[in-house]
Write a structure and sequence with these properties.
The longest helix has 53 residues. Helix 5 runs parallel beside helix 6, helix 6 packs antiparallel against helix 7 and helix 8 crosses helix 9. This protein is of the alpha+beta class. The protein is rod-shaped.
């Protein structure tokens, strides 16, 4: 059997990277900003310092090289220093070269120097200039700590042996040579050393200053973030949704504004939750109390000999009605509590069929009403059960507030469903609240219902990317308009703006 491949151990670079990431994650944001500022300025200072040092060094060497070559060429043209006899008799002070070493090297490597001076560094490069009579050669010899020289060799042409003058010199006896000039680099080395010390000092001071500046900037810039962190910790500790003061328009201020908006939304959610729990408890208490009362009456009647069949049937019918009301209320609460994301598990449905089925169901519950229905096909993506519940609630609401022989107009045109009843209309003070959970006007509390039907309609519209609004439509009653997007595109057309309501004084409020 083939052996399974052995996983390779992480390389050194990978381990170093993982170590650096681990160390970086342990640093606070304050420390990261300070470190980033110090490292950035340190790199900038290092690059500038190295560039300045190399530029100054190169320029000083270039100036020295030009000076050495120029002075050597002048001496070669004069001819006084290219004769071995003259060179050995001349003192450096006589030609103003007391700070330099001058020598003459022949092609056979024989060298001559000035009187009372040291021989300049002569090696193969200088002999090569003498042999080949090539262009001048300049090089450095030694080190800054041990006899550091800059040596220039310039071709000097045929040189006669010592003891023979130019007139007596036989061309066959002469040989090519080169004049060698060496300049000590001690002064340049001291200058470069001092420059390096200054650059190092400036760099260290710059890095320290950058770290201090980064620390100050981090403290100043992260102070709002510290307040935001403290506010978040306070909210987590006390559950008190208290916003923090915001000043400025920078990124941290925008984060604080977003945090305050989140706190406001959370506070609204908590307020809605408390109101929902309180209203649900109140609404659930009424049918439960009625059921308990009826059951107590039934039990007491059984202890006294029982009720008549007619009274018993009426009492049980009342209990069943209360149970139906309780079941409907629980179903409405469950529907509103369900927070299904939009378009999850939706299917392609025909909205006109949903409306037609709802009309058929409600028409059986309100046989005396006149139904004026006009539907046009309109496909939508959605939850057929939820849409059916919403449309049924709209139609039930219209039938409930219409008189027994009233007229209900239902229109479905281009994705806009309008339901208009012939009831008293909606009071202007109640219009902004008709879709709120458990909201019922004082006059409407005498009618059956929990106040959740229109809230479910709004919930269904929002879940399907639509909208719902209400208005009065004289000479009839209230009109509810439900808009849903086409199945081909969620934003095929913008949601229609609610039409302005004409002045209408309702006969009563819902």
């Amino acid at each position: 059997m083939p052996k399974a491949p052995v996983p390779k151990a992480p390389g050194r670079s990978q381990r170093a990277q993982e170590w650096w990431q681990h160390k970086q994650q342990r640093l606070s944001l304050h420390a990261r900003v300070t470190l980033l500022a110090a490292v950035t300025v340190g790199l900038a200072v290092a690059i500038v310092s190295i560039s300045a040092y190399l530029t100054v060094r190169q320029q000083m060497y270039r100036n020295l090289d030009d000076s050495l070559v120029s002075r050597a060429e002048i001496a070669v043209r004069s001819g006084e220093l290219t004769e071995p006899d003259n060179l050995q008799k001349i003192l450096p002070d006589m030609v103003g070269l007391s700070d330099q070493l001058i020598g003459l090297v022949l092609a056979d490597s024989q060298a001559y120097v000035m009187s009372r001076t040291y021989q300049p560094p002569i090696a193969e490069p200088e002999v090569a200039v003498a042999k080949n009579q090539s262009k001048p050669n300049v090089r450095s010899v030694g080190s800054p700590n041990d006899r550091h020289f800059r040596v220039a060799a310039v071709a000097a042409g045929p040189i006669c042996p010592p003891g023979l003058g130019q007139e007596e010199c036989d061309p066959s006896l002469s040989q090519p040579g080169a004049l060698v000039v060496a300049q000590s680099l001690s002064s340049i080395d001291r200058t470069l050393h001092n420059l390096g010390v200054v650059l190092w000092a400036v760099g260290i001071i710059g890095v320290i200053g950058a770290a201090l500046a980064g620390n100050a900037i981090a403290q100043s810039g992260l102070r709002p973030l510290a307040r935001l962190t403290g506010a978040a910790e306070y909210v987590a500790r006390t559950a008190e949704l208290r916003p923090i003061p915001v000043t400025g328009t920078d990124e941290i201020s925008r984060l604080a504004q977003a945090f305050n908006a989140m706190l406001a939304a959370l506070a609204q959610s908590q307020d809605r939750q408390r109101r929902l729990v309180g209203d649900a408890g109140h609404e659930l208490r009424t049918p439960l109390t009625s059921i308990r009362t009826n059951l107590d009456l039934l039990a007491q009647a059984d202890q006294r000999g029982g009720l008549s069949p007619e009274d018993r049937r009426q009492l049980l019918d009342d209990v069943r009605a209360q149970m139906d009301e309780l079941t409907a209320l629980i179903g409405d609460l469950t529907e509103l509590a369900r927070d299904t994301p939009q378009n999850r598990g939706y299917e392609l449905i025909e909205l006109s069929n949903v409306v037609q089925d709802a009309v058929s169901r409600v028409r059986r519950r309100a046989p005396g009403a006149e139904w004026d229905v006009q539907l046009m096909p309109f496909p939508v993506w959605g939850d057929e059960r939820l849409l059916g519940r919403a449309v049924t609630n709209l139609l039930d609401n219209a039938a409930k507030y219409s008189p027994p022989d009233g007229r209900v107009v239902v229109r479905l045109l281009d994705g806009v469903l309008t339901v208009t009843d012939s009831g008293p209309g909606i009071a202007e003070a109640d219009l902004p609240h008709v879709f709120e959970r458990f909201y019922r006007s004082s006059e409407a509390r005498s009618r059956p219902g929990s106040g959740l039907g229109l809230a479910i309609v709004k919930h269904a519209a929002e879940q399907h990317g639509g909208m719902i609004y209400a208005r009065n439509a004289p000479p009839m009653g209230a009109q509810f308009t439900l808009w849903l997007p086409h199945a081909a595109a969620q934003t095929r057309q913008p949601a229609p703006t609610p039409p302005p309501s004409r002045p209408f004084k309702p006969r009563t409020s819902r």
